């Protein structure tokens, strides 16, 4: 930064990126009631996807990870946490990662996945190839689709401060860890069906 105009441009950029961010991320999911039943889902032609979403410990101060589900060009997503700066970040549900077990209500049909990480400066995303990263659900189904672990690449930016400069993600089978937490949160739903997207890195069809 060599002059006052460069200084102002530097701090205006995150605000611009933030406005762009909120036009592209789709619709955030609302919390699913722990009183929901399979009959409720079937009546509304919906299904539940059960999963976990994690990122490295202590990385929550840099931003939050998103598990996105695409259908017919639209997406909905769940986050590790809501970065508002107003309230403290929630405690992690896991010992070795920051994150939680999540439940998302989706329309019956086929859904394609993506992993993303949202910071104050923008969003990094890897969207999985259709042929390798889709799952199909029927109304009333409750399906465990796996564990999304988001990996972060850091770089040094203004004044030597660290920030995120890239993202990768793996899908894993963590049912032994995740399902007891799910059943404690949603005691009325019973055991979900296991239908993993797959296990291994998300091979992106595009990245930004």
Q: Alpha-carbon distance between the termini?
A: 26 Å
Beta-strand share of residues: 35-45%
Over all CA atoms, what is the radius of gyration? 18 Å
User: Number of helical segments?
Assistant: 3
Q: Biggest β-sheet: count, sense, barrel?
A: 7 strands, mixed
Overall pLDDT score: 77
Structural class, by secondary structure, is alpha+beta
Task: Tell me which oligomeric state these chains represent.
Answer: single chain
Number of strands: 13
Q: Rough shape?
A: globular
Unreliable spans:
1-25
- The topology string of helices and strands comes to HEHEEEEEEEEEHEEE
Helix content: 10-25%
Kindly describe this structure.
- The protein is α+β, with helices and mostly antiparallel strands and 208 residues long.
- The chain contains 3 helices and 13 strands, in the order H-E-H-E-E-E-E-E-E-E-E-E-H-E-E-E.
- The strands form 2 sheets. Strands 1, 3, 4, 6, 7, 8 and 13 form a 7-stranded mixed β-sheet that branches. Strands 2, 5, 9, 10, 11 and 12 form a 6-stranded mixed β-sheet that branches.
- The radius of gyration is 18 Å and the shape is globular.
- The protein starts with a helix and ends with a strand.
- Residues 1-25 have low confidence and may be disordered.
């Amino acid at each position: 930064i060599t002059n006052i105009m460069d200084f102002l441009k530097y701090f205006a950029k995150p605000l611009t990126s933030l406005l762009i961010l909120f036009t592209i991320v789709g619709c955030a999911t609302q919390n699913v009631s722990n009183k929901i039943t399979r009959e409720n889902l079937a009546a509304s032609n919906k299904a539940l996807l059960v999963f976990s979403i994690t990122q490295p410990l202590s990385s929550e101060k840099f931003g939050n990870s998103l598990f996105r589900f695409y259908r017919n060009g639209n997406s909905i997503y769940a986050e590790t946490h809501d970065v508002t700066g107003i309230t403290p970040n929630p405690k992690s549900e896991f010992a070795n990662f920051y994150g939680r077990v999540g439940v998302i209500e989706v329309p019956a049909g086929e859904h394609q996945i993506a992993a993303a990480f949202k910071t104050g400066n923008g969003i990094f995303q890897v969207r999985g190839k259709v042929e390798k990263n889709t799952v199909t659900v029927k109304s009333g189904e409750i399906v465990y689709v796996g564990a999304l672990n988001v990996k972060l690449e850091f770089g040094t930016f203004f004044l030597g401060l660290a920030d995120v400069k890239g993202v990768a993600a793996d899908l894993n089978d963590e049912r032994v860890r995740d399902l007891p937490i799910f059943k404690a949160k949603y005691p009325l739903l019973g055991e979900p069906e296991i239908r993993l997207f797959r296990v291994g890195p998300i091979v992106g069809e595009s990245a930004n």
